[in-house]
Amino acid sequence: MIRPSRVFTVVPTIPPALTALEELAYNLRWTWDHQTAGLFRRLDPARWEATNHNPVLLLRSTDQVRLDEAARDPGYRRELAGAAAELAAYLDADGPDAATKPRIAYFSAEFGLAECLPIYSGGLGVLSGDHLKSASDLNLNLTAVSLFYKHGYFLQRLRPDGWQEEQYPENDPASLPMRPALGADGQQVVLTLKFPGRDVQVRVWHVAVGRITLYLLDADVEGNQPADRAITSRLYGGDRDMRIRQELLLGIGGVRALDAMGRRPEVCHMNEGHSSFLALERISQLMAEGDLTFEEARAIASAGMVFTTHTPVAAGHDAFDPGTIDYYLGDYYRELGLSRSEFMALGRLNPADEGEPFSMTILALRLAGRSNGVSILHGGLSRRLWGGVWPGLAEEEVPTGSVTNGVHLRTWLAPDLADLYEGMKSPDEWSGSLESTERLRAIDEAPARDLWDRHERLRDGLVHWVRARLASQLARQNAGPAEVSRAVEALDPKILTIGFARRFAEYKRATLLLRDPDRLIRLVNAAERPVQFIFAGKAHPSDNGGKELLKYLVELSKRDEVRGRIVVLEDYDIGVARRMVQGVDVWLNTPRRPMEASGTSGMKAVANGALHVGTLDGWWDEAYRAGIGWAIGDRRAYDDPNYQDELESVSLYDLLEREVVPTFYDRDTAGLPQGWISRMRASMGGLPAVFNTDRMVHEYFTQCYEPAALDVRRLSQHDFRPTREVAAWVARVYQEWPRVEVLRVQGLSDRVAAGTELEVSADVALGGLNPDEVEVRLACGLLDGEGILSAPSLSPLSPLRPAPDGGHRFGMRGVKTERSGRHGYAVRVTPRHPSLPMPYPLGLVRWSD
């Protein structure tokens, strides 16, 4: 045995004729450009799969002989030149308004861009990645910030008994499509972040996503303490102390990284609350550079802040105990000129409650000028959940809107279907409404045989891919040769195939189908009309309940009655998701309403011709129409989740047995399921035109980014004079507000005939404020059983004249009471200033007694 004294690595030399491959590999546009991805696949198809579609690793490991062979192939060189020219033209298309575009920074704790760059866990990250891709296609001036996780989320391995185990392989930057972010000196940028008692060094990496740059921060730097090097070890790993260090790095470090790269933004978009500390850093920058007070800097920073929340339950939002905040941010908030109580109030629903944790979501809501949920239903839920940040406002007035999520179609669409979506929509045509969206004519006009043949090819490809993956999975579990060989016979390319893939959290109800296993077995084994299922998904490492669900599903899949008809795939990632959404017939989504904020996997599936079967939650609540898919249950609210699950499990079985299965297998004389194809046309022709990230990002631009940038520019004029004026006005309002009072309301009597037009007036004491500095509204409507106004109408009262006792009279004519019953009314006063970026930013409301 000879032990080497030194070890070295041999890497292939890229032939001069193929040098363009390297630039193509380092720009993730190949993830949505089939021609470029095909160039890498053609070099070595087996290695392309083995590297998890990683072109950088592929080029480093492909045999030299094969590279030289490709360099001599004129056809390959011609295609390579075309792809390189197309990328160059794409990157150069700045347009005439490049200098005036809003400068946007998009912060997210995870980005799902490609399966070979494992810095994501699931839906939030994939949504963030699709956001960047559409921002690139729409040519926004946007830069993104996240962390580089050395060990990613985790690699899922299923034991033979179905129990999930986690592995954390190391991600080597040199083998990934990312490069060092270089400063003016040509060296990788390294930041210094102050933590209690020590400095933490942070490297910055650069990832090209089409025209967009993503900067990744990395604390695994020699010289840092081991505990600090671990900050960027695992996504969502560690305890609360690790979480706050990650979020300090993302928020405060991220803003400083943008400065170091010369990319200071006008608008910062916080995708979830993980990056909320960035708002404080923006305020700190403005205070230092503009000689502004905290409140002055807050006014301009808030104008340029956008916050998106994705989580529909309060417990899912990060919050830290006061001691942790004091330890990590005590010096920081003192440098901002804030007392402890003033700082803690920024992150508390009740500022006076000393025991209340410091919430990252509340911090974002208090400091962001614009906020939104990710579907219409979730926007309403968020207003109920966080309405306490604006006490005294009616629920519908809480300033949290909604921008429904979408998917980047070019990433997720099967090449076989791409021509059906060419020229789908221009930004000027997006309405965001299904009712006013024109159907895609290319899909309507495609012959039924052509559409069905394309779909059947995709299902066939999925089945053969699943067989190969399942065989590898079983071999890794040390299964016997007979069991591995049976994997090659799993599934049937002609059978109705249903896909279910997502995080194995309890509320997503992966086992809704399993409440009646006998009925499921009958479905699977029906002689004439069988059904098969493909499941995939990860449980959070600390979620033993989710792991038990997964284990139970694996155990069921191994029963003789369903073996080969129910398949559970391990390590669900972007690559697995792409295969599944492109090949299944039905996409099944069963969250417990209203726990799914949006959901996007079904959007990917319907774009590829699958029909959606799901509960009316998230995006499906606004997308579902008769004839495009099926709805499980209805929109009722339930107090007993077990009762809800039981009802909806029965509803799901009834749908499958009575509608889904018969529609799929009902064929005409040519063997075509005309009813199914009709639903495919309706689904593909309408839903992708709305539920895509081009539409979503365009909405963010028009509703948030562009107006936010204009606000920031206006407030920055004349050495921040408008900002100082607004801050002075805010201080005066706070001083005068205790003297604001509704003195009397006149014009409404105890008994009114339906349809009567009334003239209403209110006398309001304003203290030192002027009538045009307040907004006065009449809230009027029916009373519920507890004597509370139920969904009142809010009508503005206009300033009329001074009132007799020193107040001011506001009034209106034309108040109508159309519906009979017990009505109530109240008058509300709020401050108003034309330069504030959102209504009711001060949280000051005065109601009549």
Description of the structure:
- This protein has 849 residues and is α/β, with parallel strands linked by helices.
- Among the domains are: 16-92, no CATH class; 448-690, Glycogen Phosphorylase B (Rossmann fold); 737-847, Sandwich (Immunoglobulin-like).
- The chain contains 27 helices and 27 strands.
- The strands form 5 sheets. Strands 1, 2, 5, 6, 7, 8, 9, 10, 13 and 14 form a 10-stranded mixed beta sheet that branches.
- Helix 15 links the parallel strand 13 (370-373) and strand 14.
- Helix 10 (277-290) packs across helix 11, helix 18 (448-476) packs antiparallel against helix 19 and helix 18 runs antiparallel to helix 22 (574-583).
- The chain is globular, with a radius of gyration of 29 Å.
Helical fraction equals: 25-40%
CATH-defined superfamily of one domain: Glycogen Phosphorylase B
What is the CATH level 1 assignment of one domain?
Answer: Alpha Beta
Content-based structural category: alpha/beta
Biggest sheet statistics:
10 strands, mixed
Mean pLDDT: 92
Number of helices: 27
Strand content: 15-25%
N-C termini distance: 92 Å
Rg over alpha carbons: 29 Å
Q: Which spans have pLDDT < 50 for at least 5 consecutive residues?
A: none
Shape: globular
What fold name goes in the CATH topology slot of one domain? Rossmann fold
| CATH architecture label name of one domain | 3-Layer(aba) Sandwich
The beta-strand count equals: 27
